[in-house]
Write the structure tokens for this entry.
Amino acid sequence: MLKRTQLFIGIFCISCLIFFIRNPDAFFNPVFYAEDGRSYVGPILSHGFFPALFEARADYLVLGNIVITGIAILINQLIFGSNVLNLPQIIAITSYSFLAFVAALPILLLHQKLRMRYLILLALAVSFFPLGGSDFEVIGRILNLGYAFVYLAFILIAYRNIRLEQGDTKQNIWIFLGLDICIWVCAATNPVVFMLQPIAYFPYLKKVWKKGSSWQSIFRDRTFLSLIGLSTVLCIQLFFMLASRNSYTGGLDSSWTPASLIEMVLARSILYPVIYPFYRYMNDVFTVLLLIAVVALFIKFANPKNYEMYWAGVYSLAIFSLLAVVFRPGLTSLLNGYSTTWPDRYYYGQNLLSIFLVVLLVQDIASCFLKRSMQLGVLTIAFVVLLSGANQASSYGNIERHAGNLRQIGTFEQNLMQAVARQSFINEEWQPAADGKFVFVPIYPTTPPWAMMLPRHIAEQSTQVEPVANIANPSALQNVSPLGNGGYQVTDKDPGIRYDLQLFQLNGTDADILGFDFACLGSSVAPQASAPTLEIYWGSKSFGGPDEQSVIRFVAPNGPVRIPLDTSARWHQAHHLRSLRIDVQNPEVCPAFSVKNAQLLKRTPER
């Protein structure tokens, strides 16, 4: 047991590192994405855990997402108090950790069905499960973790059945109660888990049909009563979910495209983990032939002792895929003859189940060979097949696949500081109000624009600053002419204004934020498009510059601007700051601009 626990911890840490490497942007570019901010963090901080739970979605609960968010908020409070500026990074770490936990959990629970080398293969394959261009929407986020809860529920139910097979029904009832509660959490996160309940009843039916046990003895079994209680709760929950579905119009509920059914159900949902490196070369004929080949391998090599596990996995995978077609038929219209896999996030739950079944079959195939070298050969082939696309496991740095790397409106800290500086206060109905108790904060994605609501007192406490240096008067102008009152007319390319910092004798650690009032003047472009991209360059004795290694870029709409310079390691490590320059990167949208009240600020957030 100690060895398994040590291996679990080791694989968990390795998996955490893998998920971090797959999408480090969630940590290094701290932003809130979609429901993470609007439906989870904002409501929990504004109204509390339970209101957020029941308001996150109108059609079903997302308990697991809310619990993970709550854990991240609790960790943030323990470390940073009421300061939420680091919360996006805490959420990223929590997301990496949850996915790693799901990947490593079979090492603890399924060691009686899979030998250790195959459990390691399973954990690594799950850590590298293919996501294409959707990785930045899953890894390091919380909003799309719900699909992993189906796989998690499958693992928990499989472990429950294994314990029943061992006759462990009397002395450890609390373990079964704990398992059933965890399964309920999974079902209260993803409704597909409701349909996995028959798997949990199979051991009891087996006792009656094959072993001749009476129903009276089954109903005296406390583990069975626990399962009945779980099913009762789920039936009640399912009733309310179905009753509320008519009041909710979700995405991807358009009519389905019959021509894409084979691709969606067989290729994209079931076979994808082994074909994704060459997916674009597939077609329906190859898909059907490959599935026949897999079935033939199962008939030839599957161990009868594992038939129940295969049945449970195939049933779970079939139900998951069928429900995806029924409730998200619009997914079929997004597929286009094996030329695209987007949106990948809707399929990775099925893919995790497929990976498990493949690894189980690999073990059975290897067991049919007596020579150890042959067994290792089968295992090696499985490693190559399942991990052959690992070099495609991350879209980080690929702007075409990574939605522009989420840089359009800056980090969460930038947007929160500017929201407070501009007094973007709202009431509970999201209406502007000078005395509003909440702050309207833009988040990602930006098309269409998303936003989150934060309590005003938390926002203000997190963004408290004190002035360090007043640098209001520029020391030099670059390709601009003064208009008076802080205004400047662009005269050539690369326009900007320069400030001399040498008199202040500052290091980067002495000032965290640059603040000023900005306005774009005389632009003929539509107001929404006229917000230019500004560039903040600086020079120091330690690093020289200004240069491209010492720059921060951001979109600057009119009004107060607050730029956290210390998010750049180069600023934070700079000694003897010499100069700071504000450039307009795209003067064609802003031929004249004004910069007033420039000053360097230091954070003084309350804990």
In short: The CA atoms of residues 73 and 238 lie 29 Å apart. Residues 465-603 form a domain with the Jelly Rolls fold (CATH 2.60.120.260). The longest helix spans residues 222-245.
